[in-house]
Amino acid sequence: MTTRRSRFALNTLSAAALLALCIPSVGRADDADVKAAIDANHAAIHSLNIGDIVNVWSHGADVTLVNPGDSTVAVGWDAVKGRWENVFKILSSVDIKQTDGPYVTTTGDIARSVGIVHVTLHFKSRDTKEVNFVETDVFLKQEGHWLVVSHTAKPI
């Protein structure tokens, strides 16, 4: 009986491994590309350069942003860009370190991610603040590039 169960388990594992090899790796490739887009978004924020933000965000009327200090949602590219410009006016530097995740799910040309980041904010006022944030992002693949369409970061 034990041998029969062992063979069944081995056959089941073998079938699962074979199935995994047959499934296209597109989702995994997209996940890696989305993770690269997350890194690019973090680098754009770190740069404190609005031109870098412009390059990683979609510019649609439906993009949204909720930063840690926000009490409202910025909706539309002009509002999102303006919100980032205001953030960059008060910071002298920002360091972002991913501490958990990002956990990415892609479905076609849409991806979402969630993760925890440790952020060190250096303000022009010379104050420094270290905070952990939960960060959620939604991306849309446009012309072969994953662009941010929604970003939310809140302290935990």
From TrEMBL:
Cleaved signal peptide residues: 1-29
Tree of life domain: Bacteria
Annotated protein name in UniProt: Ketosteroid isomerase-like protein
Keyword annotations of the record: Signal
Coiled coil: none
InterPro entries linked to this entry: NTF2-like_dom_sf, SnoaL-like
Species: Labrys monachus
Keyword Oxidoreductase: no
Residue ranges constituting the SnoaL-like domain according to the UniProt record: 34-151
Stored SUPFAM superfamilies: NTF2-like
